[in-house]
Amino acid sequence: MTTKTRPDETTDWAAGTVGEDVMTVHKLRGPLNDDRRTKELKSVCGAGKARDEKTVWARAVNCPRCLSAS
User: Fold this and answer.
1) How many CB atoms are closer than 10 A to CB 45?
2) CA dihedral (62, 37, 12, 68) positive or negative
3) Is 2 left (phi over 0), alpha (psi -120 to 50) or beta?
4) pLDDT tens by residue, 5-56
5) Which site in 13, 15, 21, 56 is 20 to 30 Å from 31, CA atoms measured?
């Protein structure tokens, strides 16, 4: 049996950190499937600078502004 995903079932964000702050986990949007383009990810709340490193984590989002921007 094969499972197919429809475009409306795909995730449009991932949990991750921005810059030096590794304790605050944000919702990140952008090219999630390309590891070379992680600097293009943007947090929903606007945290960090454009060139800050973004790291996707398998952690729960805990940024209050990202959570309220659902």
Assistant:
1) 17
2) positive
3) beta
4) 445 445 689 999 999 999 999 999 998 888 888 888 999 999 998 889 999 9
5) 21
